[in-house]
Amino acid sequence: MNTLVVGAGALGGVITGRLLDAGVEVALATRDRTSSDRVLTSGIRITGVGGDVMVDVNRVAPLSDYTGQSFDLVLLATKAHDAIEVASKLSGLLEPGGTLLPIQNGGVPQMLGDRLGECVLGGLSNLGATMTEPGIYEQRNAGHLLIGELAGGESERAEGVRQWLGRAVEVRVTPNLRGAVWSKLLLNCSVTTLGAVAGGTMREYITSSEGREVFEQAYDEALSVALASGARPERMIVEPIPPARSGRSVRSEEYDAWLDQILKGYGDARPSMLQDIERGRITEIDFINGYVVSIARQFSVHTPVNAAIVETVHAITRGQLAPDPSLLELILQASQ
Ligand SMILES: NC(=O)c1ccc[n+]([C@@H]2O[C@H](COP(=O)([O-])OP(=O)(O)OC[C@H]3O[C@@H](n4cnc5c(N)ncnc54)[C@H](OP(=O)(O)O)[C@@H]3O)[C@@H](O)[C@H]2O)c1
């Protein structure tokens, strides 16, 4: 399966390095020649979970150098906004019947599927990784890629891609990829984004009454949108529908136990969106809480808390606000 990985960042670097180390032939595309030259010189070095890797990369070049070539599989491992920008160009690099596999957070797989049709196989990553510089990576957990048809059900190509990439990284196939995307969105909308707004981890912000209130409402709104759209979110760390869900200020032992499970899984992680803000990078807010708000409009679901969160993150990236726990109270006020 002639394969191109687009993006030599944290996930693209780790996946490419592990594929090459397992003897799986793969080409890597960077945004520019400076990055490709660095990877060509340094090779790929991975430390952390899953074992260390040090491997040479022979086929690495800026994306523009691959014009005229064609691939059976293009794995799209850029951030969301770049994925949306570059995807139509990538569909031109596919063999007839070839597959474009996006693995971004948020609504990206569905958006690309709507735009480009059947060539898109849905994907998401539960694999965690960081990049120190192009070529140098750390794998942070023993996670997996989850792939599946956006239209639902099983397919030979999903199984074929699982077997091919599965020689190097764990890949699972789900017949309910859309539901899985929403399960991850529910957590990203609340855990990750609110940590970025408050400037810390979920375990820190959830201790305040405002933090808990915003979490509950952001999660509940997103869940209402998922269900209204016909998606069936599936279990991801927790059951997607919390116990004793009433929509507002839920307080019950069962709910606390459910929240505890989320805290055990994600409570101490420094949100990736906060790291993007600190580095002055574009965030993926428009594809996470912003996606929830845009789908909500189609189904006439009210999402004032998610809308206020999107505005707040935009104000932070414009430099008008700085991440701080006090912003959670402002979000509650703005959503009244
Ligand atoms: N890292 C994780 O642990 C993790 C876990 C789950 C999900 N995700 C999701 O996976 C996606 C990728 O995350 P990441 O952490 O790997 O991001 P990242 O480290 O920022 O890597 C993205 C890479 O794509 C490159 N790129 C951008 N546009 C390109 C183009 N047109 N052609 C070729 N390369 C291009 C970027 O280059 P420049 O640096 O030059 O822009 C960067 O090297 C995101 O949606 C993220 O939310 C990540």
Question: What's this, in brief?
Answer:
The chain contains 13 helices and 12 strands. The chain is α/β, with parallel strands linked by helices and about 325 residues long. β9 (about 130-135) and β10 form a beta hairpin.
Tally of distinct domains: 2
Described by the principal axes of the CA atoms, the overall outline is globular
Named CATH topology of the largest domain: Rossmann fold
The beta-strand count equals 12
Q: What is the arithmetic mean of pLDDT?
A: 95
N to C succession of SSEs: EHEHEEEEHEHEEEEHEHHHHHHHH
β-strand percent reads 15-25%
Q: Which cofactors or ions or other ligands sit in this model?
A: NADP nicotinamide-adenine-dinucleotide phosphate
What Rg is obtained from the alpha carbons, in whole angstroms? 20 Å
- Strand order of the main beta sheet, please? 5-2-1-6-7
What is the assigned CATH homologous superfamily of the largest domain? NAD(P)-binding Rossmann-like Domain
Can you give a write-up of this model?
The mean pLDDT is 95. This protein is α/β, with parallel strands linked by helices and 336 residues long. The strands form three sheets. A five-stranded parallel β-sheet has the order 5-2-1-6-7, sandwiched between helices. The protein has two domains: 3-175, 3-Layer(aba) Sandwich (Rossmann fold), CATH 3.40.50.720; 179-334, N-(1-d-carboxylethyl)-l-norvaline Dehydrogenase, domain 2, CATH 1.10.1040. Helix content is 46%, strand content 16%. It is built from 13 helices and twelve strands. Helix 3 packs parallel to helix 4 and helix 6 (177-198) packs antiparallel against helix 8 (209-228). It binds NADP nicotinamide-adenine-dinucleotide phosphate (NAP).
